[in-house]
Write a structure and sequence with these properties.
The complex is a heterodimer of chains A (about 130) and B (about 350).
Chain A lengths: L8 H30 L2 H35 L2 E8 L5 E5 L9 E4 L6 E10 L7
Antiparallel strand pairs in A: 1-2, 1-4, 3-4
Helix pairs in contact in A: 1-2
Chain B lengths: L1 H57 L6 H8 L14 H23 L5 H34 L2 H30 L7 H10 L4 E4 L3 E8 L2 E8 L9 H11 L6 E9 L9 E5 L8 H13 L3 E8 L1 H5 L4 H21 L5 E6 L9
Parallel strand pairs in B: 3-7, 4-6, 4-7
Antiparallel strand pairs in B: 1-2, 2-3, 5-6
Helix pairs in contact in B: 1-4, 1-5, 3-4, 4-5, 6-10, 7-8
Classes of the chains: A alpha+beta (about 130), B alpha/beta (about 350).
Chain lengths: ~130, ~350
């Protein structure tokens, strides 16, 4: 059983598409302002509606996609096993192997030849990127 | 042109005046329709994962699909509550029968699976069952709303939809965790008990539980947890009753450690203390613990590790795993403050012990 991470490519494509719609909506908003200044009511309503509908759809789509990505990150987080030597406290963190469980004996300590046990198994939260 | 615009405004005003509710209902139905499709996908994904895991782990000779489908349609008829006297025992009995039936059915589908793997598979099938049930209920209400156009049905369902979807996403995560055999957030209690038991000999107690005796700050501590590392919650009420009876009720305190749902804004992995039996579920185990504690006059304390519903049923987060040491420090402080040297303290780690051994 391998833990495949869901591909985020489609989420990025959808966010890019929503950003394009948002850009077009901003362009329509600009056109609506120009039409208002020029006294062209019909064009103002046409562009205004376009800008409004486009902005609402794009913002709603981006918000939903963000929520979805947070969930996907949660369930696709990397799972690690923390192994500790009961004798000297030497600690090793490695990827989770099928069959691992907390308190399972997994071999000898490299330092004191004591027994190494799985101390914790947890999903690592994605680290925030440093700018 | 301005006449045309005025006409459009007037028409839309009249349309909203007379058909506003219908328009809103149709928009709500469109949103529910999307959610039903999403739930169906989640249910199908979980079912495929369950079948794949059953085939890989259980190596069945026949196709497990029909038997799995039959398991996913299983139901429980609750005992009649018109005369509530004795209902807890009736519920307890029904839950025992249901669990035994579910486990034996899963073991039959997966003949090569070890008992620990059967427990994990049982939890996986339960998560898929929950997703299937949620999908069927939401689809039923959606179709009923569509058929009757009742705003009561449509708007209530729309209002509950975000919470239903949150829970469905949690179960989707749970199915992945059980398929892999990871500890889940709800296993915080068993993790604490397991840490206390480490290096000590454990014995089986009632029912599907293990106990080990250790010394902490000069006090005798009996730590209890469900038998792992397969997914299992055991019957902590029966185990506490047995340990109390074995010691003639002479325990200074019972400390229950469990995962608790956090409120929005609270930090995952936050530890809080309280009084009373910290145990979820239908209430049968809490009833037994409260009965025994009252009978022997033993105070019951609770320590909880806060987490969201998603954290509780998906792979244990680092913050929750690391909170186990904080809980042990709190236990030490509590027993130092409340008990004397040589006295007996029972520490029960409550929750699903998937991925946590004795």
């Amino acid at each position: 059983m391998s833990s495949k991470r869901p591909s985020p490519i489609w989420a990025y494509v959808l966010i890019a598409f929503s950003l394009v719609i948002l850009g077009l909506s901003m362009f329509a908003l600009l056109q609506a302002m120009n039409a208002l200044q020029a006294g062209q009511t019909t064009q103002f309503i046409f562009y205004g509606l376009w800008a409004l509908v486009g902005t609402v759809l794009a913002v709603s789509s981006i918000t939903r996609m963000r929520q979805r990505m947070v969930f996907l990150q949660h369930i696709a987080a990397k799972v690690v096993s923390q192994i500790v030597c009961a004798g000297c406290g030497f600690k090793v963190i490695r990827g989770f192997n099928t069959g691992d469980y907390v308190s399972k004996e997994v071999g000898q300590c490299q330092q004191c030849k004591g027994s190494m046990r799985v101390d914790l198994i947890y999903a690592e939260s994605p680290q925030p990127k440093k700018s | 042109m301005s006449n045309l615009i005025n006409l459009v405004w007037a028409a839309s005003f009249i349309a909203f005046l007379f058909f506003g509710q219908q328009i809103q209902s149709r928009l709500a139905l469109m949103q529910i329709d999307g959610a039903v499709r999403k739930l169906e996908n989640m249910k199908n994904d979980a079912r495929s994962l369950t079948l794949k895991t059953l085939r890989e782990v259980g190596k069945p000779k026949d196709d497990p699909t029909p038997r799995l489908n039959s398991l996913l349609e299983q139901f429980l008829i609750e005992p009649v509550s018109m005369d509530p006297a004795g209902i807890v025992n009736k519920f307890d009995h029904l839950l025992d029968v249901r669990e035994a039936k579910f486990k034996s059915d899963v073991a039959r589908i997966a003949p090569e699976a070890t008992s620990s793997q059967v427990n994990n598979l049982e939890n996986l099938v339960e998560a898929t069952w929950a997703l299937n049930y949620m999908f069927k209920i939401v689809r039923h209400l959606y179709l009923l709303g569509k058929k009757t156009f009742s705003i009561l049905v449509i708007f209530q369902l729309q209002a509950y939809l975000p919470l239903i979807m949150q829970e469905a996403e949690a179960y989707t995560g749970a199915s992945k965790a059980f398929a892999e055999g990871h500890p889940i957030g709800d296993g915080a209690g068993p993790l604490v008990a397991s840490k206390l038991m480490r290096g000590k000999e454990s014995r089986k107690v009632e029912k599907d539980m293990v106990a080990a005796e250790t010394m902490l700050e000069g006090r005798r501590v009996i730590a209890l947890k469900a038998e792992g590392p397969g997914g299992n919650v055991g019957k902590p009420g029966d185990a506490i009753r047995q340990v109390l009876e074995e010691n003639n009720g002479k325990a200074s305190m019972i400390i229950m450690v469990d995962a608790a749902l956090k409120l929005e804004g609270e930090r995952t992995g936050e530890v809080a203390e309280g009084i009373g039996a910290a145990i979820g579920g239908i209430g049968t185990e809490r009833y037994k613990i409260e009965e025994e504690a009252t009978k022997f006059g033993v105070p019951v304390y609770a320590i909880v590790i806060k987490q969201s519903i998603l954290d509780a049923v998906t792979t244990m987060k680092k913050e929750i795993a690391e909170a186990a040491d904080t809980v042990i420090d709190r236990i030490k402080r509590m027993i130092l403050e409340t008990t004397k040297e040589g006295e007996l303290v029972i520490v029960a780690g409550i929750g699903n012990t998937a991925g946590v051994g004795p």
